[in-house]
Specification:
Elements: E1 10-13, E2 23-28, E3 32-37, E4 43-47, H1 48-54, E5 55-60, H2 67-73
Antiparallel strand pairs: 1-2, 1-5, 2-3, 3-4
Length: 74
């Protein structure tokens, strides 16, 4: 079962980005995720399976109260 990840969540990855940061903001969810490094603002597309394996922890979660999630549910 896939992890519950939402647009706006901040995640910490197991490995650091070349800029030295390891925190990413989720910009888009689905089969592929668009994530943005919170240190250098680099954006990347990554498949869900690969992202879920690289997550160390979810630092802050937008949860079910996110306006983006309310739009998707309608």
């Amino acid at each position: 079962m896939p992890m519950k990840l939402y647009v706006g969540d901040i995640i910490q990855t197991k490995k650091n980005h070349p800029c030295g940061g390891n925190q990413w903001e989720i910009m888009r969810v689905g089969m592929d995720f668009r994530i943005r490094c919170t240190t250098c603002d680099h954006q990347a597309w990554i498949p869900r399976v690969k992202l879920e394996k690289s997550i160390k922890k979810v630092i802050s979660s937008a949860g079910d109260n996110s306006p983006a999630n309310e739009i998707q549910e309608r």
